[in-house]
Write a structure and sequence with these properties.
- With 367 residues, the protein is mainly α.
- The chain has helices at residues 3-7, 41-63, 71-78, 84-119, 126-129, 131-146, 150-171, 179-202, 206-217, 225-244, 246-253, 256-261, 266-288, 294-306, 313-333, 342-366, and strands at residues 26-30, 35-39.
- It has a two-stranded antiparallel ribbon.
- A hairpin with a 4-residue loop joins strand 1 (26-30) and strand 2.
- The longest helix is centred in the N-terminal third of the chain and has 36 residues, at 84-119.
- Residues 1-24 have low confidence and may be disordered.
Length: 367
């Protein structure tokens, strides 16, 4: 472990994110001579609280609405022994939507956490850098030009996000994947892609334009098991390698020189994690359309709660799930009978959060 890490000091070359400090906690060994895990008390407590909050939000979502249900009725519907009306409301209307919200929120939050660590910048988010708009371009091409299926839309979003990441990387060659330079380039790329989205909509038929514009706002309405299963499968494939590489991610956040000295293949690790981050944002965008704020704010809120200087992916995933599920619950219940897309709520809150974050970062850069 480096002297800078032991002292908890900032590593030269880092931007706005302090170097990881000595990690305290209890080491837990799984199996004879097996895996060793370091459990930090505050991180564990925050994780448990977020899990409980998620259970509460999901429970309220399933039991309230135009047809209120008791917890018992919901459980019976989930096990197939409830009434026909309860079964339809829970298993056809509410459960696919809430699961989609949970999965998409987790995907966006982990994507943002990885990207913020790789860039060592709190503004390093797929929303800001343009990956989300790139995914939207790919999805809109499939929707408007190719008239593709859900699977093809997801593939188009993935290709669009990866192409955007490649373009941003090429523009950053020789400058390093960090700092406000990346944010500025990302904002420029995002604006260009937004113009492409607008052009695609102008070339669509009236009905296609309405559908595309509604999709661009970001919505969880009319989400079926197909959507929940698609994003759930993406999480099952992408989250395990992300969690396995989280320790290396902490070392990469300390700086390339320090990470290399600790035995980390920086280029390979950064490439794999960047692909995972883009893929998570792309699949989430394909399922619900662009949803702002979650990827930007969830990792920062979790770092504040856990007081961790390094990435904490599992709590970030839970925070993203709670934020998006709670936002969707609010737009469903508070603004009923108006059918507002969840993107309106996250966009409004995210705009205020982004203004605060930009002011904070500006003050840090002048200090």
């Amino acid at each position: 472990m480096s002297a800078a890490q032991e002292a908890g000091a900032s590593v030269p070359g880092s931007v706005n994110t302090p170097a990881p400090r000595v990690i305290s906690g209890r080491v837990v060994r799984i199996g004879p001579g097996g895996i060793s895990l370091r459990v930090r008390g505050r991180v564990f407590a925050v994780t448990v609280l977020l899990l409980l909050a998620l259970v509460v939000v999901v429970g309220v979502t399933l039991t309230t609405g135009d047809l209120p249900l008791s917890v018992g009725e919901v459980l019976k519907a989930l096990t197939g022994s409830g009434s026909a009306s309860a079964d339809f409301v829970v298993n056809t209307l509410r459960m696919p939507r809430i699961l989609t919200a949970v999965f998409v929120g987790a995907a966006l939050a982990v994507s943002g956490a990885i990207l913020q660590s790789l860039t060592r910048n709190s503004l390093g988010s797929p929303d800001i850098i343009g990956f989300t708009n790139g995914s939207a371009v790919g999805a809109l091409v499939v929707i408007i030009v190719l008239h593709g299926s859900m699977t093809q839309i997801a593939f188009g979003a993935l290709v669009g996000g990866l192409a955007t990441a490649l373009a941003v990387n090429l523009l950053m060659v020789g400058r390093g994947l960090q700092g406000f330079r990346l944010v500025v380039i990302g904002i420029g790329v995002s604006a260009l892609l937004l113009a492409v989205n607008s052009y695609l909509i102008t070339r669509a038929t009236f009905q296609e334009a309405l559908e595309a514009q509604a999709w661009l706002i970001g919505s969880l309405g009319n989400r079926l098991w197909t959507h929940a299963n698609a994003i759930g499968l993406a999480l099952a494939v992408l989250l395990p390698p992300a969690f396995l590489l989280s320790r290396r991610l902490s070392m990469v956040e300390m700086g390339d020189t320090t990470a290399t000295a600790l035995g980390v293949d920086v280029t390979r690790t950064r490439t794999i994690l960047l692909i995972i981050s883009v893929a998570l944002a792309a699949f989430a965008t394909a399922v619900t359309g662009p949803i702002w704020f979650i990827a930007l704010a969830a990792p920062q809120v979790v770092r504040g709660l856990t007081r961790s200087s390094g990435p904490v992916l599992l709590p970030s995933a839970l925070m993203g799930a709670v934020l998006l599920a709670l936002s969707d619950l609010v737009v469903q219940r508070v603004f009923a009978p108006a059918l507002l897309p969840v993107g309106t709520a996250t966009g409004a809150i995210g705009g205020l959060y982004l203004i605060w974050l930009l002011i904070t970062e500006s003050r840090k850069s002048r200090a």
